[in-house]
Amino acid sequence: MLRYGQKYAAKFRFSAVLVLGDAVRLPFDDNTFDHAIAIAIYHHIKDENCRLQAYRELHRVLKSGGEAFITVWNLRRSSPFSKSGEVMVPWMVRGKAVYRYVYVYRPTELRRELMKSGFRVLSQQPRVSFLAPFYRNIAFLVAKRS
């Protein structure tokens, strides 16, 4: 993913500092960022306690009043994954199926976890034009309480 990020930055001619890290233990100081984007990350973290820790880490690195845009896959829209819970989803890599862990969220469940982690929910599935590609996912805009 870091290579993709470097290619993207070069393609659109902007500077990016990319860091390899673990969502459960972010390699940043407290109160570092005004904004964060976390797209399609948290549903790949096994165990509810680890997911909650990852949300707390995101909360920790945001400044007071800082905002984060968070999406998780909405597999409930797909017929084989109609229930919430843990599933292994096939992903094609060089013509071969590789199975990836996914936690299938209900929107109410994600809201509960975000609030439990200290966030204030600003909106769910925002209807802003540049977010259109994420409509199929569960999307939240949250803020760190001031």
Helix content: 10-25%
User: How many H/I helices?
Assistant: 3
Largest sheet: 4 strands, mixed
- Going by helix content, strand content and strand pairing, the class is alpha+beta
Query: Averaged pLDDT, please?
Result: 88
CATH superfamily: Vaccinia Virus protein VP39
Q: How far do the termini sit from each other?
A: 33 Å
- Taken from the alpha-carbon principal axes, the silhouette is globular
Radius of gyration: 16 Å
> What is the CATH C level class, in words?
Alpha Beta
Please state how the strands of the largest beta sheet are arranged side by side: 1-2-6-5
Element order: H for helix, E for strand: HEHEEEHEE
- Total strands: the figure is 6
Domains counted in the coordinates: how many?
1
How would you describe this structure to a colleague?
23% of the residues lie in helices and 34% in strands. The longest helix is centred in the middle third of the chain and has 14 residues, at 48-61. The mean pLDDT is 88. The protein is α+β, with helices and mostly antiparallel strands and 146 residues long. The protein has helices at 2-11, 48-61, 107-116; strands at 33-39, 62-72, 85-93, 96-104, 119-124, 138-144.
